[in-house]
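Contributing new complexes? Match this layout with zinc ion.
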Amino acid sequence: MQAPLSRLCVHTITTKPLALPAAIAGYQGIGASGITVWRDALLPLGLAESKKHLAGSGLSVVSLCRGGFFSAVTEVDRQKALDDNRRAIDEAAAIGAPLVVLVCGAVPKMPLAEGRKQIADAIAALVPHAAGAGVKLGIEPLHPMYADSRSAVNTLGQANDIVAELASPQVGVTIDVFHVWWDERLETEIARSGRLNAIFSFHVCDWRSPTRDMLNDRGVMGEGCIPLRQIRGWVEQAGFNGMIEVEIFSNELWQTDQSDFLRKIRSAYLEHV
Ligand code: ZN
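Output block (do not edit by hand):
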């Protein structure tokens, strides 16, 4: 079944060339209902002015991207990461975003299990601040190709393990199809996330084949090989019926006319998600 436009949300990074007011106008223009704001999009106007634009837009602010990058070799650097995450939580609260998405971090040559331990400890340390601000934290497992330097949490199972260990209503998962579509345990782990009441957000795009760049070659939904509707079905069966967030990093698409790109997103969302 087609997903309704009332669940379509776009990430500001998807239309990176657009400043926040132009992004808002663009998302309104395609009938989207939500916006996820990347921290860099807040810099030109500042928090107060950005909040005004968001509050007057009629779009629901779904999350702030992103916090994380917790693991580090030294205690000083781990504390710096925590401070930065507290700032991210405060920024989310300031713009009315109920969720900060976490790209958890990794250090080359650090054993992945040690990285995951540091990540779990860091998230535990943030819970009181997040609860005080009324902001939740979504652990986003990243594709294993990023296990060296961007995240030691590479499967939804590992993210669920941290959620179960911390057992805080403040901590859940962000399921991004780009990162998890290949996992043979995906359906099972999505169901487990649901039982943990932990599906906080859901990101879509597509996996281009071949992928030409590890970071910035995501496809528009339907351009690649991810079984989007099947995964959406699993997520909904697990109890999630929140926003479906279009998050596309693409050097190629950022160079195109962003209004055309947004129209393409709208039709791809209706046809393929
Ligand atoms: Zn994502």
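Reviewers usually confirm one structural detail per submission. For this one: The pocket of zinc ion is lined by residues 140, 176, 203, 247 (CB under 6 Å).
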